[in-house]
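hey so i finally got around to running both of the ones u sent me last week. sorry it took forever, my laptop kept dying halfway thru and i had to restart like 3 times lol. anyway pasting them below in the order u listed, first the sequence line then the C-alpha cell line for each. didnt double check formatting much so if smth looks off just lmk and ill redo it

first one:
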Amino acid sequence: MSKPNRIVVENVIRPGKTTSVNADMYAAMKIALLAVIPSQAPGLTLADIRERIFAHLPEQRFPGGKGVSWWSKTVQLDLEAKGEIVREKTRPIRLHRG
C-alpha cells in the first residue's frame, strides 16, 4: 500500500518547527479556510471561521466533521507562517487574508 502524498507545514507559534501532513486533507482544509476568511481587516473570529468552513469541506474527507478542529488549526497556523493570512492583535483573535 502506498503512502499518501505529504506536505510540510510550518507553525507561526513555533518558528522553525515543521511537520509532515497528508497533502489531500491539507488542500481540502486550505480551500475551505480561504473560502471563508475575508480579504480585509477586521476579518472573522476563529469561532466564526470554524462555523462557516463546514459548508466548504468535502464530507468524504471529514465525515461528520471528524478532524475538523485539528486540521483547521494546523492549516491556519501554516497559512499564518507563510503570510497568506494575518492575525489581528485583538481579543478574540480575528483573521483575514494577507
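and the second one:
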Amino acid sequence: MTPGGDEIAGILALEPDLGYGAYLASDCTSCHADAAAEGIPRIRDLPAGTIVAALVDYRRGARQHQVMETIARRLGDEEIAALAAFLGEAD
C-alpha cells in the first residue's frame, strides 16, 4: 500500500457530514472555484479519494505547497471526510 494508504482508507470509511463539508468548503472554493486562477486546480467533482489523498499528502508534508500544507495540517480526519464528500464525486 502507498504511504498514507491506511490513513486515506480510514478517512474514506468515515460517515461524512455533508452539511459540515459545505460549511468548510466555502474556504476552499474561494481559491479553487470552477474558474480557478491559473495554477490553482478546480477541485469540485474530483473523486472523493483524490481529494482525501491530496489533503493527507499535504498534511504529512509529502506534497508541498505552503498554503495547502498549513490548511491541511489544521484539518482532522472527519473534516477531510466531510470536504471530500461534499466537493467530490463518489468513487
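quick thing i noticed on the 2nd:
The domain at 5-32+43-87 is CATH 1.10.760 (Cytochrome Bc1 Complex; Chain D, domain 2).
anyway thats it, ttyl
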